[in-house]
Each structure stands twice: as structure tokens, then as C-alpha cells.
Please model this.
Amino acid sequence: MRYLGLIVVCVFLISCGGHENSSAVSLSVEDGLRASVVNSSSAEIQLKVPGNDAETYHLEINELKDGSVELVSGVNIPLDILGSYESTNGGVLLSLTLTASETVFFNFKHKVEAGAFAHEDCQFYMPGFWYRRNLRSPKEAPSFHTSDSWLVREDRLSTPLTGIFNEKTNQYYTVLRKDEFLTDAYTPHTHGENILSGPSSIGFTGFENVNGLANLSFGFPHREEPKTYLRKLTLDPPVIAFHKLEKGESLQLVWEIRQSSANDFSDFVAKTWHYSYHTFTPKPVSDVASVEKVKEVLSNFWKESFVETDDLNYFSGIHLLTDECKSNGSAEIGFIGRVLLNAFFAIEYAYETNNSDLKEIGYKVFESYLKKGFNPTGLLREYVEHDFVADEKIFSIRRQSEGAYAILHFLKYEQEQGRQHPEWEAKLKGLLDNFIKIQNSDGSFPRKFDLNLNITDVSGGSTPSATLPLLMAAHYFKDKGYLESAKRTGDYLERELISKADYFSSTLDANCEDKEASLYASTAMYYLALSTTGSEQQQYIQLAKRSAYFALSWYYLWDVPFAQGQMLGDIGLKSRGWGNVSVENNHIDVFIFEFADVLTWLDRETNEPDLSAFSEVIQTSMMQLLPYPGHMSGVAKVGYYPEVVQHTNWDYGKNGKGFYNDLFAPGWTIPSLWEMLTPQRAERFFEE
Model:
């Protein structure tokens, strides 16, 4: 077992561009690295006797005559720590073996100075959780607003890695855990000192400001400092776990530390993603249902969730209880509801399968929204609570855009079948004219506004959601005005998001760095590339690729372990291919939509096979929780695909790691998967 014999392995690799493949370096350089590792490393171990506070012991690194090292404390401790530093082709290998001479409960920590980088000169990176300094996030979530030093448990991260990028020198260091992740253990308390209930593979990683210098800090088992992130906008006091070693027993751990350079923070993220991808080499998940089976199962959601009223007809897909999936009065046009996109997919699938019931349902939704789905301003009624006869008073560019996107797909499909809808076209033009009215001079769109188009949230993070329907409308209506508006959004995205590596607040229930902002930005550039030619198209291709790496960085490259009794582990969920959501909302979900297409298209356009290969991982992995008889995956109804998948020690309000939150929104999960399973839809839309 990998629990026997603690080996800590740290490798410093010098690489030159590309995908960071290691290259040969001279012996003198490697010897210099060896000396650097020895001189800049420090370690400590905390030992706990049950019922007593833990004691911390600093460890001195002593070199022995045979070239090996020992880590020793100034006092006797029931642990022997031996190892060696070895120069290798392109790095330095540090191997440590820790053996218990008596039964002991320990937490081990190692630190490496990152090239004597001044902490204030650096940006920091923990994939799927920390970007630059997390300054878009509030002080109630992990960010520099609370502290400039953070240690977190590894399963929070899409790759168990921490990176430090020096903006002044363009050099960077990363530390990556390279071990077998086999199991997790329950932690009795959310903070303070905890003795683990059993074996665990989860360690910790992070960065610390030590006397003004940036340090990579990592160890085992997990600890979180200065706070642990308990649930949305709730920071708890720090937590530290202790792993039990019996007399004569040991534990094995592996880390890799790299040092290299990048053109900028975006290049650093891209290089680190390729390196991480090749380290973990995630494979597609086997034994998942066929595309035909998945669509058949998901289509049951449209039948069971359809609600017909005197006002709007809709699919009840938000704020449902996982153990009931009972329809309610909430109808949402975009974001977590996606009513019109669900209706379009239901119509399309109904014609493909000759399903008259689904056809009737889909058209009834569109007919009701044509008659009663717009307010006097010409905006879509984007969120309606029929139970309380209430409409949302504040509107969002994201929901409005997602509604327009669905309408355009519906109109194009109907046009191709020889059916025309002039009333819908008029309504859509009125909606898009409102878009033009609120577009800012810098090309951005405000995040939120009221019925009179007065801006209530000026933030431009949701801008790329508008790019898609504007370009689709330009093609459908042959209107260059929409094209010019979309290109202006592209200018804004390049200037303010992509060039600054600052992707934020596209999701509507958080104000922070998030996956959807980078995913939407990459998809927007994909649409712009499909709408242009020549050098202009090539520019958009490169921007799509640049932002795609940030979106990719949110997706898991490894399978986090679960403790027995945590349902997701018990049913065999593999986390690889699933994406974390945001700094605030620290869970994984199936938000993908067209991004799988973007990745395969980028491979074709730029010869990046890693992108299309990982797209395949995503497409197989995200079908794992499909609920059908005998495989209900913890939800009450067939086809109601789960949403808030809690994979780490965090919860959205209920249940915690290994379970779902009690409330979920299959209104968006179904069209996300459906779009993924119907490739090249956008490319077909823009065909002449």
C-alpha cells in the first residue's frame, strides 16, 4: 500500500516553453538547484497526544557524508526522518522516509522559498479556487482581503497544485502533489485540531508570506489556515488534521516542484495546465450510457416538469428538493432555469423521435412566452414566481442573452423546416434593440438593470453572454449592426478580461472569480471567429485559446477520494472532467454547454491535441450521475440531473462533502449536457 514508507519527493524542472516538457540541463545548473533546494527548504512536524494540544517541532536538515540527509528536531521525537537530495536530468529529487518508533499522531509541513521572490511582486494560483489574489472575491471568502497567506486542503483544487508567479521577473514556481489518492476520512470538527477517523490521502497546499518572501507550503494530512472555508461566504477558524502512524508504520507522499518562466500570468496558467494534464493523464470514464440513452433519460425531465398556467407555460427546474423533485411556481428564462432552451431542445428531439407529446409541450412554452413572456419595455420576463404572482424587478444581461440565444436557435430551426415566425422575429428585434441601448461606450454590457434600462450593476463580467446572440442575430437577420455591437464586446473582453487574466462575476449568485466568465469569454471568441475571416479570425482564435485555459483550469484533472458513507464516493463518482464553480461556490457541476465544441475546434485550428483529448474526458465523465431506474444517483426522478455536487469539505447550506445540497436546479443541467451531446451546433448555425 502507498501508506507504507513516507517518501516526500520534490523535483525542480527547468523547461523551455511549449508544454513544459523537461529538457537536459548542465550538471552545474543541477548542482545549483540542489544547493538551492537544501538552502531554501524548511520543515516542521506537529505531534498530538489525544486529549492534549499538539506540539510543534521544527526540523533541521543535516547533510550526511554519503550524500543523504536527515531531518532532526532539537528534542527526541518518536519519528525518524531520513532521505536524500539527488541531481537528476532537469531537476533535484528530494526523498524523505519518515518512520514512527512509537504510535504517533502527526501533521507534517514543508516550505520552499520561491526563488527569493518578494511576496508583494507575486500573483498566486491554485486551480479552480485561487486566481492572482482573489481580490474580486469578498472578505467573507478566501482572498487577500482577509490574508496574504493561505493553506487549503487539496480536494478544493481542480489540480492539487499551488503556483507563484513573479510579475517583475516572469519566473514562477509550482508545487504539485503526485501521489495515489485512495481515500478520505471524516474530520470530527470543522475547525481546530482533529484526529482523523481513518486513513486519508488528502494533504494541503498553499502559499505563505514569510518575512516578505513568497513561500510554497505543503504537507500532509490536511490543514487550512488562516481560515477554513465552511460554506458560502462563511469562513471558520483554522483546522488541522492528524494522521495516526502505528509503531514501525510509515506513509508515502510525493510532490513535484517546478521552476520556469512565462510571458505573463495567462501563459503561466496555460503552461501549468499542460504540465498538470500530462502529469495526471486523465482518461475518459468508461461504462457510461450512450448518447442516445442519455438523451432518452434526460427528456423525461421535460415531460414531468412541464407546468401549464393561465400565464406562462414553463419547465419547473429551479429550487427543487432533490428528494422530491416536485414542480413549483418558479420559471426562469436563463441562468439556472433555461426555460426556452429546454423548450427548443424538446421540439428538436420530438421531431427526431416522432414524439407528439414533447412537440406539443415545447410549442406551448414558446407560444406562451410569445404572448405573455415580454414586459412593456420589450425585455423578457426573466424570473417569475407564479406562486406569489411576482416578477423579478431587476434584469440581467446574462438571462436576457440566454433567452435571446434560445429564441434564435428556435427561429433558425423552424426556418430550416420551412416554418416562419414573424411575430417572434419582431419581439426578438425589440429585445436586441434594448441590448444596443444599454451597451456602454467601452463595448461592455452592465451586469444588471431595471425595467426602465437604468443600470443597477455596472460590472462588465457578464458581457460575453451577449456576444453570442448578437452574432447569431447578425447572421440570421443579415444585420451588420449586430455584428459591430458584438465586435465591440470582443474588444472589451480582450482589453479588460483576457489581457488582464481577470475573469469575474459572470455567474449571477456570486461576486468573485468564476469559471463561467472565462468559459463564456472563450465561447464568445469562438463565435467571433466563426463570424469573421482572415487575420481578424486568427486574432479571435488566439483569444479563444488564451481564455480557454482559464476555463480549463477549473476542471478536475484528478479523482478526489471520498470517505465511506459519503454517497458520491459510494456510487463511484470520478471527479475528473467536472468543473469547480467559483471562489464563493466551491462545488463541482456539469456546466459545459458548448465549451466541449470550443476545445475540439481549438485543437483543429491550433493543433493542440490535449484540448480535444480532455474534451472527451469531460464528455464521458459528466454523464456519470444520470438518474434512471436502478441508478437514481441520489435524486427522486428519472432524468432530473443533479447540480450542486459537493466534492470537498464545503457545503451550499446542507449535507457537505459527498452529497448534494438539498435544493437543486436541473433546469440548466439538462440543456448543458444536451448541448454537449449535440456537437458543432454553432458551426452549423453560421453555415451559409
Remarks:
- Confidence is low (pLDDT under 50) at residues 1-27.
- Residues 397-416 form the longest helix (20 residues).
